[in-house]
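Q: How do we represent a protein-ligand complex in a form that can be generated token by token?
A: Start from the inputs.
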Amino acid sequence: MLDLYNQHLGHRHLEVGPGSGWYLANTTAMQPGPAHITLMDLNPTPLSFTARRIEAADRVVESVCGSVLDAVPAEAGTGYESVGINFVLHCVPGNFAEKGVAFRHLANILGDEGVLFGSTILGRRRTPRTLFGRALTAVYGRVGAFNNRDDDRDELEDALKEAFGEYSITDVGDVTLFTARRPRR
Ligand SMILES: C[S@@+](CC[C@H](N)C(=O)[O-])C[C@H]1O[C@@H](n2cnc3c(N)ncnc32)[C@H](O)[C@@H]1O
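Then emit the structure tokens for the protein with S-adenosylmethionine bound:
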């Protein structure tokens, strides 16, 4: 996952669901130098925590409260070089036929040359998951932290295809990584 950030983080970046901000704080792509990072989350706490963690003299960090199930708030602007959405979609209710609308919303604010990168844990997999993965998914599903029971790769692919002209999907262990380019207008 950190490789995704190292390879794709741009100078004007939207981070959806930053959590503790660990990836933004640890990516080698976040070198000193002018950058504009917008954080978007349902909850104010990850926004303020991450903003404090990554603040730097020549970096503009803005926060917007919102859900990926809705259009990105206008205050976030458009024309992003990169959008990160990591370990968010398996928390969001519904299957990809429903929550896949998130990709449309993010395609709308991504620049023509921009890249979206992300990761999720699918509830339905072609290959068996590890014992740890099974246990984690079962426990997190039971307490409502994961909503990925009906998430499968085909529907993830359909949702990406609907919003982007180019995409890739790769499994690493129990985690599914994706990138997407050429947002459809
Ligand atoms: C498991 S954390 C992932 C944190 C971080 N991206 C990482 O990989 O370490 C999920 C994050 O997504 C946010 N989130 C959950 N549902 C969301 C939604 N519908 N729209 C935006 N953010 C959401 C949560 O508040 C939290 O910050």
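Residues 16-19, 22-23, 41-43, 46, 67-69, 86-88, 91-92 surround S-adenosylmethionine (CB under 6 Å). Strands lie at 12-16, 35-41, 59-65, 80-86, 110-120, 164-172, 175-183.
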